[in-house]
Structures are given as C-alpha cells and as structure tokens.
Description:
Number of helices: 6
Number of strands: 4
Oligomer: single chain
Order of helices and strands: HHHHEEHEEH
Amino acid sequence: MQLNPYGADAVNLAADLANQRPRSAEELADRCRAAGLVLERPVAADDLDRARSALDAWEAVVDAADEQERADLLNRMLAEAAAYPRLTAHPGTGWHLHYRDDQQPLGSVLFTLFAVGTAFHLAHRGMHRLGRCETTACDTAFADTSRTGLQRYCSQRCANRDAVRRHRARAALA
C-alpha cells in the first residue's frame, strides 16, 4: 500500500537534485526514473529549466529564516502548483492521488511534487525538518526523516568529521 507518495520520497528527491543539479534533460529524466517517478511524456529541454526553477524555490524554503517564512514560501509554491487532486493508476503502481493535472511536462510535475511533498513532510513531521549540513565545509540540503527529528548533518560522514574536529579542538585546549 502506498500511503503518501508525496512525503519523504518527494523531499529526498528534491534534496538529491538540489545538491547535485542535473546537467541535462536526459540526466534529469534518468534520476527521476531511478527515484521511482513514472514519466508520462517525453522529456524536453524546457523541463530542465522548469526543474531548476522548482529547485531554486525549494532551496529558498530550506533556507528560510523561520517557520513563518518557510510556510509563506511553501504556500507560494503550492499556489503556483495548484490543481484538483485526482485518483490515478499507472501500470504496476495501483491507485493513488496526484495533486496535479494529467500529462504535465516533467518540470511541472517536479514543481508540484516538491511543493506538495514538502508541505506533507513539514506538516506531518515538523516545520524544522529541512536544513543544511552543520559542518562548516558542507552546505548540503537535507530533509530530516529521522525518527527523532534532530538531524544536523547531511550524512554520517559529515557528522563523524565534525565530531573529530570538535574532539581535536578540545584536545588542543588541554
């Protein structure tokens, strides 16, 4: 049973694409397919431009100074992506909701997916559940899907690096 295709998968895809922007429409399509997205139409160069615009808007939500700014930015994305929810079934996926019109180009699909998925993620898990890695040498965006909701680093590797840095700093003072 697919409970919420617009939740964690959507924000994780947004973070993945934001942290390593696709260089071509073909790369964008390949990475979306690899993430499990069903592409309804052939991908065009315009899709890459629209996806970049969606990622810019999404990163502004990530970098918002507070919850109200985050909500305002996300509400603007939702207003731009607005469509009536509809039931749909792709071959092999079963029935599920789409929050967009059918047969949209990939760039528009991604904009809606990021907006609705991020709204679900933040509304259900907490408005603080997007961020940037706290390691000074890293600015990777992440969606906190941890059980505790206390994620500060993009990866275990960055968390370990920062722990080593703090340990060495304490040892140098001793």
